[in-house]
Amino acid sequence: MAISVTLSGVTLDYALYSVRAQSLRNAVLNLAVGGRLMAGQNDITVVRALNGISFKLQEGDRLGLVGHNGSGKTSLLKVLAGIYEPTAGIVDVKGRISSMIAMGAGLDPDATGLQNIKNLAMMQLVPRREIERRVPEIVAFSELGAFINMPFKTYSTGMMARLMFSVITSTSADILIMDEWVSAGDADFQHKARDRLSNIVDNAKIVVIASHDMHTIRRVCNKVLAMDSGRPSFFGPADEWAQMNGLA
After folding, report:
1. In this predicted model, what pLDDT tens digit does every residue of 69-82 receive, in sequence order?
2. H helical segments located in the chain
């Protein structure tokens, strides 16, 4: 099976609240989101996060999503990852997806690090037998030692990041979805994490990454989708986009 990602006219709306009850607040918010608030069914306000997005990615493509905060990058990543179902349009994904979006979702602060490893792996749809096989390697990579049997809520921020990163990057995938270039833990661990992440990106058939770091986009990606108010303002080769923006 050829790995591919195809979007056709994808639109995503978020429901907010009653138009009539919040008319003044709507007016203010409408300015803040570029005029994208509109009245939906049952007198509910919706904000259109994505509006008619269409593109196709094939094996070997590395797509960089760029745009200011609120332009729709993260919403698009979540649609690609299957977290959100589009309001309209078609998302056709052929291949196994691994996503690095909101990495802390699904963690239980009262459970041990070990149990959270198993929970996170199950959320990634890893078979139970495969999880048991991979646990020792995940624990070793995280460098948490005896803390792996302590409640997750006792961890420092760096320890939490190390555990989450170790689980999420323990499996390979055909399609990798990322929100920013992930860093985790202290300086020594970050060096190891960068090596692992680079290897995963190299082995994935398709990569989609949203980032404000233009150097990362130029280094990793061969295509760029620039977002503006939920719409694409550019889709094409990364070199062309770099020349247009004085980055060549």
Report:
1. 889 999 999 999 88
2. 23-32, 73-80, 113-123, 128-142, 157-168, 187-203, 214-220, 238-244
**Which class for 1: exposed (0-12), middle (13-18), buried (19 or more C-beta within 10 A)?**
exposed
pTM above 0.85, yes or no: no
Distance CA 158, CA 105 (A): 16
Compute φ and ψ for 173, nearest 5 degrees.
Answer: -150, 155
CB count in 10 Å sphere of residue 45: 23
Report yes or no: 50 and 195 within 8 Å, Cβ to Cβ: no
4-95+209-244 maps to CATH 3.40.50.300 = yes
Which tokens go with 210? Answer: 């949203």
Q: What is the pLDDT of residues 37-73, one digit of tens each?
A: 555 555 567 788 999 999 999 999 999 999 998 899 9
Q: Which tens digit of pLDDT belongs to each residue from 86-99? A: 999 999 999 988 88
Cβ neighbours of residue 27 closer than 8 Å, sequence gap 6 or more: none
Q: What is the pLDDT of residue 127?
A: 84
Domain with CATH 3.40.50.300 in the chain: 4-95+209-244
> At 152, which amino acid appears?
F
**Helices 128-142 and 113-123, axial angle in degrees (round to 10):** 130
Q: Residue 194: which pLDDT band, with cuts at 50, 70 and 90?
A: confident
CA 78 to chain centroid, in Å, comes to: 6
